[in-house]
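Friendly challenge for the regulars: who can give me the structure tokens for this chain first? No prize, just bragging rights.
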Amino acid sequence: MDTLMLKRPWMMALLAAISLAHADVSVIDDAGVSVRLMQPARRIISLAPHLTETLFAAGAGERIVGTVAYSDYPEAARKLPQVGGYASVDLEAVAALKPDLIVAWQSGNVAAHIDKLRALGFPLYLSQSNRIEDVASEIERLGVLAGTSPVANAVASQFRQRLAGLQQRYAARPVVRTFYQIWKQPLMTIGRKQIIGDVVRLCGGENVFAQLETMAPTVTVEAVIAANPEAIIASGMADSRPEWLDDWKRWTSITAVARDNLFFVPPDLIQRHTPRLLDGAERLCQYLEKARERRPKTAQSR
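First reply, four minutes later:
Bragging rights claimed.
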């Protein structure tokens, strides 16, 4: 038998692949919990749109058997069965799909739902990417759990190379005080731990509400006026610029308004913690560069 295998290397490769497909795998999730599977997952449920997208990026798209509402990227994600929304998961629908892995969003899914699924015995991986670099790590870990590491590792490597390029380009740029607006009513922004804040820092910006601990704190118009940002970035809920971004034009005392630094980044490119986050980062960096160019010459020379 050994002689036969030596003469046919493809048989050795095949047996190695079969062995790998049935080997147990484990990773540490973002909650610090060890997630261990007897073999790579074949029936995965994603409980957030950005996790669905990340699973596809990790090469595990064919292993997803259920998602939640707004899981619309890539196109193949639209065709998958849904088990409610990220904040309203149908636990019975999840159980009916018999997943061997559930990928959940720590700060987005309802904690009671996560606890219930764990109590039912389903393996859970909890995700909470708070820094840009976390996206690459998550792709790699999901690749391990799905048995698609060759694809996942390549995508993660490309992500890190692209991120390094942006860091090199913008690290030494003059600081731009930035207000990032998620929504109008209530007026919501980003706090210190939000990954979008990390994007702002990457681009040489300073989040004017970085002192707030809440992920998506509510602020007042008066607080924004007092903070006097040099640039206002809005996302909204769709691919088009929200009308309410121009509502700031009435407050001409704000530097961002006076210099017409009111910018829009599509939410799918910056509010989803996926490889496309760097697409959003590139746009935000370009906008902050415009804000620098629009400074009076005396300010530019500082």
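Residues 173-300 form a domain with the Rossmann fold fold (CATH 3.40.50.1980). The first strand starts at residue 25 and ends at 28. Your move, everyone else.
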